[in-house]
Amino acid sequence: MPAWNEIAIEYEIDAEDSFVSIGGDWDAFAEKNGALGLTADCMLGKSLWAYVSGADVASLYRVLTNRVREIKRAVNFDFRCDSPDRRRWFHLIVTPLPDNCLRFYSILLKEEERPPVSLFDDVIPRSNELLTVCSVCKKVNYADSWIEVEDAVRRLHLLENEPLPQISHGLCCECYTRLLENLDCMT
Questions:
Q1: Cis omega (within 30 of 0) on the bond before 163?
Q2: pLDDT tens digits, one per residue of 23-69
Q3: Distance (Å, whole) CA 175 – CA 157
Q4: Quick check: 92 and 106 in contact, CB under 8 A?
Q5: What does the alpha-carbon distance between residue 184 and residue 187 come to, in Å, rounded to a whole number?
Q6: Could you tell me if 146 and 134 are in contact, meaning their C-beta atoms sit under 8 angstroms apart?
Q7: Domain coverage including residue 61
Q8: CATH of the domain at 10
Q9: The pairing of beta strand 140-142 with beta strand 145-147
Q10: Side-chain-facing half-sphere of 127: CA atoms under 13 Å
């Protein structure tokens, strides 16, 4: 896999929001993160929306994709894509293409190691409880505020409880507002 400052992940969706092209370091990134079911061969022809979790996130991304198609201009923003032992900051550019297709291009801006956070480990058994994590910044909703995952693990005593709660994806107020402002600027 390339060095962190060389990782670029890209894909295109058609007018029906199905994956029609996947490239860059997609497969290497999926394999490195143990997501063999998310390689390009497995994803092509499938709907983007099957892989966007959380109603708030899906709703905002639908607004985003519709807006890019409507005004025919690119939009971009930063987001995090963490794994149990890494924090990763990406920059995403969504660009309109002919025939209402869209191109998504993400480049890894920064990556840092951290002690593993089992909350982000997909193979650990889960309870029926839900814990909401912001899909953009990866902060956790705790007592009506959004805090870093390591703080949430400590405050909620998550490692003392078995099984861990399921992760539900949402958007913190700060990220939601920033993304909406970005969309509002697209006129």
A1: yes
A2: 999 999 988 888 888 999 999 999 999 998 878 888 888 989 999 99
A3: 26
A4: yes
A5: 7
A6: yes
A7: 4-184
A8: 3.30.450.20
A9: antiparallel
A10: 11
pLDDT of residue 177: 87
Q: How many domains does the chain have?
A: 1
The DSSP code sequence of the chain is: ---GGG-EEEEEE-TTSBEEEEEETHHHHHHHTT-GGGSHHHHTTSBGGGG--SHHHHHHHHHHHHHHHHHT--EEEEEE--BTTEEEEEEEEEEE-GGG-EEEEEEEEEEEE-S--GGG-TTS-EEEEEEEEETTT--EEETTEEE-HHHHHHHTTGGGSSSEEEEEEE--HHHHHHHHHHHHT--
> What's the rounded Cα separation, in Å, for the pair 102 and 157?
42
